[in-house]
Structure formats: structure tokens, C-alpha cells
């Protein structure tokens, strides 16, 4: 198995390097930015944050968010509705592998046919290998065939390419996506599930001619089964880092491009505030969502806000590349199913609440 993994790792690394070396990478072209003049970050932030109206709106938003969180923790409104909501979402966990495969496989197929490597900002001049990579990895994930190995190849390819082209940080959500798929496998429905069922049945001809299932697949699954519990942690931390990067690096640190987008789509006509407030508000919102996901606080609520942000972007920016966001849509949806998972504030709060409930002394009996 180690030899196969080494060969797969070497192959994926060569694919990534070859794809990026065959042409010029358009690293400075953003998804929808029409082009802009450079804007000094410090001057932009100083102007935006010293404006009394802007400061009042941002302060009110921050206080409102904090107050809403504290009120919810104190009063826990609609407990039965929340309980049924969580229980229903958790009942979908058996479909989590399928959701993850769709979230990563579909945009990779689209990237392959479109000729870009993970992100639309990385488009080699000779995209033959990029097309083959995206289509092959994407379709194998969609079919669920060799799922764990394919996810490992995809992950290594992305990381090798990222070392060469930092613009791929725009597609960092592929890291938690690939890691999660490598841990949960193909699930069902998948080609892996069909093959495993045939191999596990000792009466089939296939079970007698396939040495891979018992010698490699089963031992690997048994050794890594305990790690599946950390899939929610991997997803929320990876997505959280993605949101922090998008909010800080792509908006607050590049205000010129962000202001150009506001002007291009006349967003100030939708909400009549200054363009600077649009940029700062969007950046801080994505930063807040990212931090909440990283620490695992109000995970499902933060995921819901993220889903709303994506939906608003797709409907508000008509020429935004939809395929580039499918991975984010799918992975955020996966977090709606799993919740925060281990090492999260949500888990700690749940444990504290459960311990408090068990420590409450029983009420007086009729004989008291």
C-alpha cells in the first residue's frame, strides 16, 4: 500500500507541476473584477472607519450580533424546534460521503472542461493536462471509484500547485474537501460500495479474483475509522480559513478591486451606503463567519449565513463563475449536516449544558 501511495503522490505532483509549467498563469485576474486603480489600504480603512455613519452602522451590526448570540445562549428559545431541526439534519449523515463527492467532483469536472486548474484565476496557456486532470479526478469522485486514493491524488496535486502559484488560495476549500473524502470514502451510492459488496460476498467470482479489498482496502478503513469523527472539524477549520482569507486578503487588503466590483454592479443602488461601507462590511462579515467556523461557535448558523452569502453573490453578480462556488456550497451544506464536531465551542457548550442538566436535583416528591 505504501508503494502505491508513493506512486500516486509522485504522479499527482508531476501533474500539478506540469500543468502550471506549460503556460503563463493569469494570477492577477479575479473572477469578476473589471480592473481598478491601486488603493492604499491604510488610507482606505482610515477613511472608511472614521466616517461617523459608517462607524455607527458597523458598531450597531457588531453589537447586534453579539447581543443575539448572548440572548440565544441565555434563553434558548424554541428548544423543540431547534431539537427537531438538528435531529433531522443529523439523520442525513449517511449521505455525507455522497454530498462531499458531489461538492468536489462537480466543480473539478467543470474546471476540466473550462481549462482552468482548481480556480478560474489559474488558466495555463496549454491546458491539455489540466483538462485531463479535472475531468478524470472529477468523474472518478462522482462515480465514487477508488475514492480515497483519488482524493489523495487531488489533495497532493493542489498542494504542489499551491506552492508554485499562491493564487490557488482562492480555492483553498479543496483541502478540507479532499481530506474529508479521503476519510469517509465513497459511501453509498458509489462504485466503491458496489465493488466492496461483491468482494465481501465469498460466493461471488469477483471475491476470489480481487486481492485488493481484503489486503489493502479493509485494513486501511479499519486503521482510519476513528478519524472519521474529525471530519466536521476538518471541514469547518478549512472553510473558516477560506472565509478569513477571502474577507481579509481579497477585500480589506485589496480595496481597489472590491470597490471596482461595487461600482461595476452598482451595489450602492441596492443598499444606499457608501462603497467603502460595502467593502468593509462584506470583508468583516466573511471574517466573522470564518472565525466562527474555525472555533466552531454557532456552526450551523454560521454555515447558513455563508450559504446565504453565496446565494446572494450568484444572483447579484450575473457573470460570476457558478462552477467555482459549487465546492463552497456543498461543503457548507455538509457542515449544516454535521454541526461543529469535536474541538468546537458548540461541543463544549453542549457538554456543559448536559452536565448542568444532570446536576439539577430532583423536584420535591408528594411526600415532601
UniProtKB/TrEMBL annotation:
Which Pfam family would be a valid example here? DoxX
Checking InterPro entries in the record gives: DoxX, DoxX-like_oxidoreductase
Compartments it resides in: Cell membrane
Q: Is this entry keyworded Cell inner membrane? A: no
Keywords, sorted A to Z = Cell membrane, Membrane, Transmembrane, Transmembrane helix
The family database entries (PANTHER family) matched by this protein are listed as: INNER MEMBRANE PROTEIN YPHA-RELATED, OXIDOREDUCTASE CATD-RELATED
Name by which UniProt lists this protein? DoxX family protein
User: In which organism is this protein found?
Assistant: Haloferax profundi
Specify the taxonomic lineage. Answer: Archaea, Methanobacteriati, Methanobacteriota, Stenosarchaea group, Halobacteria
Amino acid at each position: 500500500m505504501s508503494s502505491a501511495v508513493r506512486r500516486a503522490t509522485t504522479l499527482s505532483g508531476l501533474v500539478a507541476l506540469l500543468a502550471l509549467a506549460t503556460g503563463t498563469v493569469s494570477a492577477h485576474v479575479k473572477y469578476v473584477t473589471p480592473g481598478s486603480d491601486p488603493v492604499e489600504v491604510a488610507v482606505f480603512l482610515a477613511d472608511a472607519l472614521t466616517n461617523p455613519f459608517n462607524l455607527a452602522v458597523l458598531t450597531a451590526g457588531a453589537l447586534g450580533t453579539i447581543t443575539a448570540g448572548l440572548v440565544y445562549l441565555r434563553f434558548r428559545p424554541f428548544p423543540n424546534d431547534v431539537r427537531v431541526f438538528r435531529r433531522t439534519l443529523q439523520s442525513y449523515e449517511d449521505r455525507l460521503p455522497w454530498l462531499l463527492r458531489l461538492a468536489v467532483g462537480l466543480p473539478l469536472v467543470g474546471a476540466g472542461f473550462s481549462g482552468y486548474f482548481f480556480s478560474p484565476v489559474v488558466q495555463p496557456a496549454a491546458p491539455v493536462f489540466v483538462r485531463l486532470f479535472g475531468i478524470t479526478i472529477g468523474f472518478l469522485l462522482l462515480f465514487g471509484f477508488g475514492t480515497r486514493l483519488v482524493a489523495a491524488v487531488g489533495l497532493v496535486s493542489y498542494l504542489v500547485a499551491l506552492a508554485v502559484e499562491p493564487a490557488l488560495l482562492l480555492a483553498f476549500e479543496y483541502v478540507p474537501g479532499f481530506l474529508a473524502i479521503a476519510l469517509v470514502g465513497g459511501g453509498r451510492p458509489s462504485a466503491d460500495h458496489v465493488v466492496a459488496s461483491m468482494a465481501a460476498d465469498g460466493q461471488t467470482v469477483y471475491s476470489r479474483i480481487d486481492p485488493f479489498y481484503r489486503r489493502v482496502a479493509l485494513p486501511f478503513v479499519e486503521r482510519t475509522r476513528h478519524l472519521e469523527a474529525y471530519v466536521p472539524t476538518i471541514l469547518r477549520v478549512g472553510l473558516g480559513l477560506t472565509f478569513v482569507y477571502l474577507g481579509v486578503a481579497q477585500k480589506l487588503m485589496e480595496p481597489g478591486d472590491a470597490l471596482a466590483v461595487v461600482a461595476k454592479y452598482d451595489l450602492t443602488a441596492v443598499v444606499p451606503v457608501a462603497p467603502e461601507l460595502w467593502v468593509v462590511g462584506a470583508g468583516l462579515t466573511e471574517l466573522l463567519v470564518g472565525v466562527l467556523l474555525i472555533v466552531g461557535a454557532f456552526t450551523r448558523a454560521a454555515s447558513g449565513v455563508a450559504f446565504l452569502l453565496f446565494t446572494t453573490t450568484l444572483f447579484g453578480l450575473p457573470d460570476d463563475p457558478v462552477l467555482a462556488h459549487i465546492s463552497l456550497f456543498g461543503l457548507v451544506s455538509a457542515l449544516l449536516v454535521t454541526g461543529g464536531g469535536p474541538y468546537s465551542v458548540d461541543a463544549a457548550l453542549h457538554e456543559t449544558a448536559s452536565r448542568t442538566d444532570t446536576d439539577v436535583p430532583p423536584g420535591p416528591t408528594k411526600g415532601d
